[in-house]
Each structure stands twice: as structure tokens, then as C-alpha cells.
Task: inverse folding
């Protein structure tokens, strides 16, 4: 009996920590963040420095991942590229989640015509294939990293609006919310103090997936010329610049592509892990 | 709710969304910091020419009136004149649409043919080697940059092995089949030109693979989780208890039911195919809407970009409508619920 009690009292690790893949994803992102933060210390060379005498060199002891068509060190450019990719993920998801959550909270709590109007607005944004709308916006504003991030945020926020609204609809009828209302709490206080904190868990899952999605979209926009502009060391730009050398110097595009793949996969694994932890019924079904 | 009243309600929603879409595309084209008259006529145009252009396209009118002109023109199928090709945008869209449709459709067919069996196998072999393989491949499919995958495929299958072509719709020495549907595979078969048919299939393979990998991954994941749920249900147990073979239980009883939620996913992935087409077409020099949109946007040809955006949104919304109605029809529990 005592033993049984002892076993059940032993704190269980949260579900996401029990999945090696999720932990691996998280470790990869932490590593990437460290690389991004200490890029000036880690990068063996200046990512923009051209050495025309050593153009298109294959990976070697001097240049671990080779050099590009302007003699720039590919590894150094990759390391600096991590900064931009993480920045894109954070800014896009931050913007989209803030706007989407605000709209979702207002729509869900206010109800009526305001809800109807805001939800139709999200329907309209959902109707566009994301990259095509992002390209149109980025093209209209002028191609740059900032405008690409704005464009991707514009196509990302509706997910948060729908998600939060659905949460609010179920939460606002809960007893604790009614109790707060009965005690005379203002609508603003109820929404911000009692409803919003309870919507954060599913938001976090969505945010992990969208971090990866934003990095993919931004790299795609850069690749076709509507995102970060050369000579900035960004992974999408690097793939684009290596495009003409794919048959002869494949490392130019290969390594930045792998970097995007691993980063996005890591965010997806974290998203999967968080989702499973929040909804045990889904465990292992993703 | 009857299927008819559901359909009517959805059609009304569809119309409302289309109005919203037109407002957004109109709004984006007004974000452009350059003067469309100057872009269209070039730097050497005289003031009188620029004024005449503005008058012709209503660019000197108040914004609400400009929107009204835009929508009235849209309703008549007039999407404006492309500043780059100097042709009506609607004509350009019609000319480029079949290439994109053929590519997206092939990618979709590939993803259904691969994704559904992969999901079923993964679920029935849960936590064993085939399951691990499918899950890892799905994770990669959901995370890989499509344009990079395309490049790697070209580098390997075209550059290194020389097995498959690295771009274009058909071999340059084979004349395009006479236009009937605009789909080279169908048109070459209709013309009885098997050489052109094989060449089109060859050219389709790599871009369709690159484009379809993402949706294959999504479909396989959805099918797997849906199968896992169905396999635990009573009717599957009953089928097993009756002594039916594993194949019959899995494919006839479980997979059929697991398909229902997967159908919705297939509809949603169509949007990703349209987005992906922009990148895939750029990589594979595929003369479709995606490449048209990219080239137009680079040249600030906004009537053309907005035309593609509008058409893509229309196709995507319409696909979702079809999927939702199909879902209602497939699953009476939702219809009557």
C-alpha cells in the first residue's frame, strides 16, 4: 500500500518531456538560438566578405561548408542566417498571434453582429492561398525582409482569431466566468484576467507550428525575390543564389536547405509534443 | 437541415467571401507605391498621355468609385490589361491556367495514391518499422522547403543521372499537341500522339513530386490518425470477430470510414498546392499561373498579380465548398446533425 502510494505520488514528467522527439526538437531550437545569439563569435569569417580568389571551393578544412560564387564562406552565412530565420519566426508569430487573439477575444466575447463581421473577415483572409497573397502584399509594399514579415503575418492571423474565438465561446459560459460577472467584474477584466489565460495552451501549440510555417514562407518569398534581399545572409537567398550551381556545386543550396528543413521540423516536433500533452487522446496519433 | 438548404447557405457565404476578396485585391493594388500609369507607359510618357491613361482606367476618380469600376469590370470578366504582356489579364489567365491545373492535379493524384495507403499501413503497423518510416517521411514532407526539394530533384535526376528532364512541359523537339483541354497529357492522347504523351508525363513527374510531397505528408498523417481511431471502434471489432481477414477489415471496413475526415484534408491541401505552384513553377520553368504571377509581381504588373490572386482565391474557395458539400453527402451524421 505504502509502495503504491509512493509510486503514485512520484511526480510524473509532463507528457511532452516523455517524447524523445519533442525533446530533440526543443534541443535543436535551443541550439539554434544559441548559434544565432553568438553568431559573431562562432562564424569563422565575415558573412559578406568576398574573396574572389577562392570562389566556389568545395567543403574543406579552411571552409567547412565551402565557398559561394563570390568566395563568401558558406558556414558563416549559414550561422548568420539562423538569426534572420528565428527573427522571422518570432516577429511573424508575435504579430499574427497578437492581432488574431485580439480579434478572436473581441468576436467571441462580444458576439452578435461584431462577431459575425469579424468572422466573415477571417473567412475572407482564409480564402487566399497564403503564399500567393503574401507575394502580392510583399510585391506591393516593395520586396524587403520587413515587408515579407508583414505579408506573412497578414496571412497567418486568421488562424489565431478562429482558435481564440472558439475557446472564448466555450469559456464564457463557465461557472467561474459567470461568478466573476456576478461579482461585477468589467468585460475587459473578465476577458483579460479570466478568459485569455485559459486560451494560451492551444495558442502555444499553434504558435510552434506557425514558427516553422513562417520560416518556410519567408524562405520561399526570398527565393522568388520578394523577401530578404541579397547580399544579406538568409537561407532562402542562399538557396536562390546557389540555384545555377546545383549540378556542379550542390553544397551552395544543399546546406541552407537542410538548415531550413531541420529548423522547421524541430518546430513541428515541438508543436506535436505540446498538442499531445494538452490532449492525451491524440497521443501518438499525429 | 436538408442538403439543398445547406448548399444555398454555403453559396450565400461564398458570394460574401468573394466580395471580401475583391475588396482585398483592390486594396492591395492601391498599396503599390508607384503610379500605375507611369509603370504602364514608361518613364518617357508625356503628362497628357499619363492623364489620358488615368482617365481611361478611372485612376483619377475617388477610391470608392474606382472600386465600383473594378467590381463592375470583374463581373464582366474584365480583369484589366496586363502591363507586361499588353494582353487582357483574363486571356493570360486562361492561357496559363491549364499548365498549373495539370501540375496541381497530378500532384494531388500522386499525394492521394501515396498518402492514403501510407497512412493505412502506418496505422496498422503502429510503432513498428513501417510506421516509423511513414512518420519520419511525413515529418520531412511537412518541413521541407518545396523550392529546395525541387532543386535537389533537378540536381540529382537531371544533373547527375540524366533520367528525367529538369524543366518545361514537353521536349523542345516535340511539337505541343493541338489545344483541346490545354492539358498536354490529355490533348496528346486525344490526338493519338503517344510520343508527346510520354514526353509530357516525363516532364510532369519531378515537379509533381516536389509539389505533391507536402500534401502527401499531410494526407498520410491525417489518414493514420483517423485509422487509429476507427480501428478501435466496435464495428471493426465485430468485423474481426466475424472472422474476416485482416485485409478485408482494414481496407473495406476501417479505411473506408477513416477516409471521411481525410477528404476534408485533401480539400485544404489544394490551397497549399496553389501556393506551392508559385515556387515549383519558378524552379521547373513551368509556364503556368505561378510563374506568370511571379514575373508579373517582379515587374510591378499589378493587374496581372491581382488577377492570379483573385483566381486562386476563387478556385480555393470553390474547392472548399465542394469538399464541405461532399462531406455532408458522405456522412449523414453531419447532414442530419
Result:
Amino acid at each position: 500500500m505504502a509502495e503504491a502510494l509512493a509510486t503514485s505520488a512520484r511526480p510524473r514528467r509532463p507528457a511532452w518531456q516523455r517524447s524523445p522527439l519533442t525533446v530533440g526538437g526543443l534541443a535543436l531550437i535551443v541550439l539554434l538560438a544559441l548559434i544565432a545569439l553568438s553568431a559573431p563569435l562562432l562564424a569563422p569569417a565575415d558573412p559578406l566578405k568576398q574573396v574572389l580568389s577562392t570562389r566556389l571551393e568545395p567543403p574543406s578544412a579552411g571552409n567547412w561548408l565551402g565557398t559561394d560564387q563570390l568566395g563568401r564562406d558558406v558556414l558563416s552565412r549559414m550561422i548568420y542566417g539562423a538569426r534572420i530565420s528565428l527573427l522571422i519566426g518570432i516577429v511573424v508569430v508575435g504579430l499574427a498571434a497578437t492581432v488574431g487573439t485580439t480579434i478572436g477575444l473581441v468576436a467571441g466575447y462580444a458576439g452578435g453582429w461584431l462577431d459575425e463581421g469579424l468572422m466573415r473577415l477571417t473567412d475572407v483572409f482564409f480564402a487566399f492561398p497564403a503564399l500567393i497573397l503574401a507575394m502580392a502584399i510583399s510585391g506591393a509594399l516593395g520586396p524587403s525582409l520587413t515587408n515579407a514579415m508583414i505579408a506573412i503575418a497578414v496571412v497567418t492571423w486568421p488562424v489565431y482569431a478562429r482558435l481564440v474565438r472558439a475557446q472564448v465561446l466555450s469559456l464564457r459560459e463557465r461557472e467561474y466566468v459567470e461568478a466573476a460577472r456576478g461579482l461585477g467584474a468589467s468585460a475587459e477584466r473578465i476577458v483579460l484576467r479570466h478568459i485569455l489565460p485559459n486560451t494560451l495552451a492551444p495558442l502555444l501549440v499553434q504558435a510552434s507550428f506557425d514558427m516553422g510555417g513562417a520560416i518556410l514562407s519567408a524562405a520561399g518569398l526570398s527565393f522568388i525575390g520578394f523577401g530578404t534581399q541579397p547580399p544579406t545572409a538568409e537561407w532562402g537567398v542562399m538557396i536562390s543564389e546557389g540555384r545555377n550551381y546545383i549540378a556542379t556545386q550542390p553544397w551552395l543550396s544543399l546546406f541552407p536547405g537542410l538548415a531550413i528543413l531541420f529548423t522547421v521540423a524541430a518546430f513541428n516536433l515541438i508543436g506535436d509534443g505540446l498538442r499531445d500533452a494538452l490532449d492525451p487522446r491524440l497521443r501518438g496519433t499525429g | 437541415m436538408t442538403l439543398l438548404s445547406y448548399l444555398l447557405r454555403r453559396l450565400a457565404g461564398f458570394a460574401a467571401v468573394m466580395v471580401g476578396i475583391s475588396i482585398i485585391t483592390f486594396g492591395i493594388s492601391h498599396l503599390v507605391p508607384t503610379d500605375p500609369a507611369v509603370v504602364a507607359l514608361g518613364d518617357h510618357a508625356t503628362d497628357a498621355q499619363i492623364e489620358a491613361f488615368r482617365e481611361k482606367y478611372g485612376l483619377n476618380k475617388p477610391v470608392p468609385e474606382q472600386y465600383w469600376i473594378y467590381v463592375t469590370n470583374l463581373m464582366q470578366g474584365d480583369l484589366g490589361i496586363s502591363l507586361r504582356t499588353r494582353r487582357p489579364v483574363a486571356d493570360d489567365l486562361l492561357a496559363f491556367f491549364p499548365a498549373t491545373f495539370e501540375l496541381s492535379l497530378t500532384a494531388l493524384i500522386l499525394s492521394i495514391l501515396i498518402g492514403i495507403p501510407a497512412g493505412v499501413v502506418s496505422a496498422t503497423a503502429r510503432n513498428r518499422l513501417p510506421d516509423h518510416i511513414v512518420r519520419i517521411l511525413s515529418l520531412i514532407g511537412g518541413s521541407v522547403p518545396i523550392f529546395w526539394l525541387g532543386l535537389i530533384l533537378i540536381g540529382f535526376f537531371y544533373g547527375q543521372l540524366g533520367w528525367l528532364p529538369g524543366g518545361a512541359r514537353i521536349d523542345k523537339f516535340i511539337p505541343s499537341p493541338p489545344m483541346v483541354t490545354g492539358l498536354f497529357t490529355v490533348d496528346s492522347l486525344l490526338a493519338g500522339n503517344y510520343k508527346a504523351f510520354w514526353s509530357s508525363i516525363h516532364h510532369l513527374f519531378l515537379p509533381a513530386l516536389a509539389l505533391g510531397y507536402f500534401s502527401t505528408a499531410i494526407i498520410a498523417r491525417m489518414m493514420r490518425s483517423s485509422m487509429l481511431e476507427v480501428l478501435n471502434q466496435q464495428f471493426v471489432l465485430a468485423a474481426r470477430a466475424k472472422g474476416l481477414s485482416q485485409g478485408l477489415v482494414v481496407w473495406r471496413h476501417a479505411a473506408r470510414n477513416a477516409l471521411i475526415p481525410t477528404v476534408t484534408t485533401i480539400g485544404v491541401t489544394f490551397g497549399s498546392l496553389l501556393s506551392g505552384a508559385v515556387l515549383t513553377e519558378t524552379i521547373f520553368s513551368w509556364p503556368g499561373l505561378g510563374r506568370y504571377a511571379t514575373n508579373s509581381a517582379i515587374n510591378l504588373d499589378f493587374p496581372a498579380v491581382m488577377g492570379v490572386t483573385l483566381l486562386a482565391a476563387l478556385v480555393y474557395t470553390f474547392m472548399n465548398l465542394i469538399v464541405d458539400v461532399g462531406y455532408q453527402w458522405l456522412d449523414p451524421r453531419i447532414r442530419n446533425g
